[in-house]
Design a protein that fits this description.
The complex is a heterodimer of chains A (219) and B (243).
Chain A (H helix, E strand, L loop, with lengths): L1 H44 L3 H16 L2 H15 L6 H27 L2 H9 L4 H31 L11 H12 L2 H30 L4
Chain B lengths: L2 E10 L2 E11 L4 E5 L6 H8 L7 E6 L2 E2 L6 H5 L2 E4 L11 H11 L5 H14 L15 H13 L5 E5 L7 H16 L3 E5 L3 H7 L2 E6 L2 E6 L1 H6 L4 H11 L3
Parallel strand pairs in B: 3-8, 3-9, 6-7, 7-8
Antiparallel strand pairs in B: 1-2, 1-4, 4-5, 9-10
The chains are: A mainly alpha (219), B alpha/beta (243).
Bound molecules: adenosine-5'-triphosphate and magnesium ion.
Chain lengths: 219, 243
């Protein structure tokens, strides 16, 4: 036990800096993905066919390609093609932004479509315009539907950062591997990393549960 | 004349749902539309406030050409609509449901809108529900609130699309009573309904529709007691003697 804790203290600075990078990449990706997701969802919901087609193509593309392949293709493949060396952090954020934006767009679109169309018709029949109806009736209800899956996506994206070790981003998983390469103690070091991921994700989950409870207005 | 529909045609894709429908409604008149499921009753009603767009014929409502409206929202304010499924705003309390449109559209101050809302809630016997959410109400209560929400806009015409069809039988009466009161006050009303008792008692005129056409129309006592068309006789027979 003493050995376990002692080693943990020794690895802590490097693991903590890895965790910082992990959280930074996840947060930055989700930030950009949020806006991209809104734009995509508007395309998906538009009555204009070509926009819908682009939307669906994007969603299927992201769903159909594993994150790791996307990251490798972008970092090594595109790098080789264009004769340039991407910044790994940049490639990481781009990878996860593209990935999360597709899933967030689906959450946004689904949430809006889940709102009872009858209420929209009632609002329109009272003379409220499209935008007022969206603002006062649709979005408040859609957001309530969307929040749990959005937080779920935050958790997924946070976990997906561990894949980015393949493009040598110095996040938590990569830093664990670097430590293990030096001290040959995979049992201990990977367990530290697991616990650190777990604590952060558990905190997010608890936050999600709390938000969900706060949002229940009508029962 | 409040409503003048002539040779109305409406199709969804290749299916013609309304075929050459013509009818008129005078100010203060209560017209009930009856007919079998799928005959186009809802569609006809929804064409009147442009929730659906017609493909042929003409629709005049208060001397406005509904098929060529420039300001659809300003037009819709003048027509109240009550739906089968109530369609109350789930994210709003009862009072917010009632005042949302007039306040957002700048027609009334919030205080004036709430005062008027309270009066209307008292009229339907639901003043104590002003601050609850719709999910806590019974069907009959929801529908009375939906009627209040429409009335708050001071409509000149009220459209009802099967307002009691989704209600448990013991709640039908409370909603019909409110509608009857409204009719007695002289509101112009078009009511799609399966409540033959209401049509007989309250309507000035009954229209029987089947397969997208008006088969027969007349005063309730004539249409119910002496239907002229075989199609009408069959329908009334089924509805009035279900077993
Ligand atoms: N949005 C739509 N798209 C395609 N077809 C529709 C649409 N709305 C209605 N229809 C069709 O139009 C026909 C008439 O429908 P409508 O709802 O007007 O009938 P209804 O007389 O109100 O019937 P019910 O008593 O069941 O309410 C039906 O065959 C229906 O399937
Ligand atoms: Mg109908």
């Amino acid at each position: 036990m003493e050995h376990y804790l002692g080693l943990f203290a020794e690895c802590w600075p490097s693991l903590l800096s890895g965790l910082g990078t992990t959280i930074f990449i996840a947060a930055a990706s989700l930030f950009f993905a949020f806006f991209l997701g809104i734009i995509l969802a508007v395309m998906g919901l538009s009555p204009y066919r070509p926009l819908q087609a682009i939307y669906h193509f994007y969603i299927y593309l992201v769903r159909g390609v594993p994150v790791m392949i996307f990251a490798l293709f972008l970092f090594f493949g595109m790098g080789a093609l264009l004769h340039l060396q991407f910044n790994p952090i940049f490639a990481a954020i781009l990878t996860l932004t593209v990935n999360a934006s597709a899933y967030l767009a689906e959450i946004f679109r689904g949430g809006i479509q889940a709102v009872d169309q009858g209420q929209v018709e009632a609002a329109r029949s009272l003379g409220l315009g499209h935008l007022k109806t969206l603002q006062k009736i649709v979005l408040p209800q859609a957001i309530k539907i969307m929040i749990p899956p959005i937080i779920n996506q935050f958790i997924t994206t946070l976990k997906d950062t561990s894949i980015l070790s393949v493009i040598s981003v110095r996040e938590l998983t990569m830093n664990s591997q670097i430590i293990i390469a030096k001290n040959y103690m995979p049992f201990e070091v990977y367990s530290y990393a697991a616990i650190m991921y777990f604590v952060v994700i558990m905190a997010l989950s608890l936050f999600a549960r709390w938000v969900e409870r706060r949002l229940r207005y009508d029962d | 004349m409040m409503i003048d529909v002539r040779n109305l045609m409406k199709s969804f894709g290749n299916t013609l749902v309304l075929k050459d429908v013509s009818f008129q409604v005078n100010a203060g008149e209560v017209v009930c539309i009856i007919g079998p499921s799928g005959s186009g009753k809802s569609t006809l009603l929804r064409c009147l406030n442009r929730l659906e767009e017609a493909q042929g014929g003409s629709i005049q409502v208060f001397d406005t050409d509904v098929r060529h409206l420039k300001e659809v929202n300003a037009f819709r304010r003048r027509i109240g609509m009550v739906f089968q499924m109530f369609n109350l705003f789930a994210n709003c309390t009862v009072m917010e449901n009632i005042v949302l449109a007039p306040v957002e559209l700048g027609l009334m101050t919030r205080a004036a809108a709430e005062a008027k809302g309270m009066e209307l809630l008292e009229m339907v016997g639901l003043a104590d529900k002003r601050d609850v959410y719709p999910s806590t109400l019974s069907g009959g209560q929801k529908q009375r609130i939906a009627i209040v929400r429409a009335l708050e806009m001071n409509p000149e015409i009220m459209l009802f699309d099967e307002p009691t069809s989704a209600l448990d039988p013991e709640m039908v009466g409370e909603v019909l009573k409110v509608m009857q009161k409204l009719a007695q006050k002289g509101m112009t009303m078009v009511v799609v309904t399966h409540e033959m008792g209401f049509a007989r008692e309250v309507a000035d005129r009954v229209i029987f529709m089947a397969d997208g056409v008006i088969v027969e129309e007349g005063k309730p006592q004539d249409l119910f007691s002496h239907p002229q068309q075989e199609r009408t006789q069959k329908f009334l027979n089924c509805v009035l003697n279900p077993i």
